[in-house]
Structure formats: C-alpha cells, structure tokens
Amino acid sequence: MVTPAAGRDAVAHLRGGFAMSERRACRVIAVDRSSVRYQRRRCDDDALRERLKALAEERRRFGYRRLWVLLRREGHTVNRKRVYRLYKEARLMVRRRGGRKRAIGVRSPMPLPLGPNQRWSLDFVHDR
Prior knowledge:
Number of strands: 0
Distance between the termini: 75 Å
Radius of gyration: 32 Å
Helix content: 40-55%
C-alpha cells in the first residue's frame, strides 16, 4: 500500500520518465486515478494561526477548546479539529502550574534518644 502523496510522485515519475499514460501508470502502481488527480482545497490559515497565537499568549491558561470558543465569538467559522491542528503545529500548550514547595537541603535522620523519656509516640490504632 502506497500513501497518496507517494503514489502521485510515482505516477508523475512513470509518466515523465517512461512516457506512460496516466491510466497505465496508475494500474502499474495500483493506485486510484482519483487520488492521483486530487488537489487539496485547504485555504490559507495564516490569519487564523496568528490570531490563535495572540489569544494563546493573552490567555495562557486556556487550551485549544477554550481558544476555539473565543475564535468563534470573534466571528471565525472554524472547526474545532482545525484549531487543534493549528494549535499543535504552533507547539502551543497550557502552561504548567508550579509544583508544591519542597524542603530545600539534605534531610538529617532523627537523633537517637540517649536516655529514657526523651522520645514519646502515640499509637491511635491500639489506644483504649
């Protein structure tokens, strides 16, 4: 099985190098002619990409779903999956919050008692 892009390249090579017809080149490689003739209709996403970056910079705690809602409110008719694709291509992500504060330094072991009644402990499970 060949990917559609590789199939298009292979058909173009056969047609250019060996003067084959499109039908015969497609039959040799076993790809559909419709996939060879396919031209994508994706529109230019530059304006949408820039606005998405601006919103993500402005609202650092928002993920792609909430940014999608903001884009829809601004009047962009855009699919959520398309916003996700642009979000991933721009390598945007929700900023991580800081973790809990941990003790700095080396922990020292508890000193051993040198005599009686220097350390007391309670056991709440067996207390009666």
